[in-house]
Amino acid sequence: MLYYLFTYLDKVLNFPGAGVFQYITFRAMGAIVFSLMIASIYGKRIILLLQNLQIGESIRDLGLQGQMQKKGTPTMGGFIILASLMIPVLLFAKLDNVYIVLLIIATLWTCGIGFADDYIKVFKKDKEGLKGRFKIIGQVGLGLIVGLTLYFNENVKIRVYEKGKISTAVGEIQKYTDTHSLTTTIPFFKNNEIDYHIFGSFLPESLAWLPYVLVVIFIITAVSNGANITDGIDGLAAGTSAIIGITLAVFAYLSGNKVFAQYLNLMMIPNSGEVVIFCAAFVGACIGFLWYNAYPAQVFMGDTGSLMLGSIIAVLALALRKELLIPVMCGIFLIENLSVILQVAYFKYQRRQHGLEFAQKNRLFLMSPLHHHYQKKGYHEAKIVTRFWIVGIVLAVACLVTLKLR
């Protein structure tokens, strides 16, 4: 909203200094500052409101050190992230940008799913929360919206440079065309691009969209659930998401800037620079939430926040054509997910081979997800979180290295 106001002041009234809002870097800094301010100023008020409404976490005793002390800690703190994210985005971003619209839809959509889950747990006293099939249906619905929009919307383009050059008053410039495409980046490879259209080439034209949309659905569901599983100890999901958000902000800025994109030989994605504002607000919201969620947590984000974080990261990666980097960039989410899958598969195998009692005594991990395994081994949760953050930073650096290493 402020973007449109200051554009009017600059172009119509020639107001001094109003033109600064045309710069993505300025608006990104404004977004992150506003996000941190909203989280720090209003976060405490939201926590008090949650306490007054008696929206507290019900703890199932898993035998973890310090676990029962958290009983009654306010949950649904994802609303702090939601407010800290959405208000700066609405103020500083171009709201007619297709990527911003998709990210806003993803944010509100999965926040709604998470809220329904938390509401059932807290007010209906049902520890299982929203049935798993309804969560999946919601995530599949979001995947359909995102996938079909990216597939059919003509504003989703990449810049293709041609061999010839045009002479201008300022020198020669390379010719290019902005074209609608489903080409994505393959990390660590030279000539690292692949077009999703090849996967639909064997289908009738009316169904050519299906393989791409199925990929989008899988990515959104996997990353969203990965963030949800990771949200098990104080500060882990929020801190990991902030690291991923910074990485995606770098990709968004470089991919949307024609100078840097050409210099680094990156896929130039017109209008993707606007995503930097969303990333900045996202990082600010995660860090602002950490002020209250770091050990010992004053509030938990609940599914209201964790499902939302995962879906945002997935849609950001898809919009920036970096979805194939997700296994590295979201490595923490991946290993948390895999630890649960492997634990269940190994338990079933051992039960089938040696019986139930043997399987219960000989689990692959002491407990899953993985962070609980380390808690069972006696590590303090603050140490676990810090070390997971360090791994997340290393993975983020590995992703940024792909800018030059192919």
Features:
mainly alpha, two-stranded antiparallel ribbon, two-stranded antiparallel sheet, 406 residues, single chain
Short structural description:
The protein is mainly α and 406 residues long. It is built from 15 helices and four strands.
Could you give the order of the helices and strands?
A: HHHHHEEEEHHHHHHHHHH
Largest sheet: 2 strands, antiparallel
* Secondary structural class: mainly alpha
Helix content: 55-70%
Protein name: Phospho-N-acetylmuramoyl-pentapeptide-transferase
Keywords: Cell cycle, Cell division, Cell membrane, Cell shape, Cell wall biogenesis/degradation, Magnesium, Membrane, Metal-binding, Peptidoglycan synthesis, Transferase, Transmembrane, Transmembrane helix
Cofactor: Mg(2+)
Pathway: Cell wall biogenesis; peptidoglycan biosynthesis
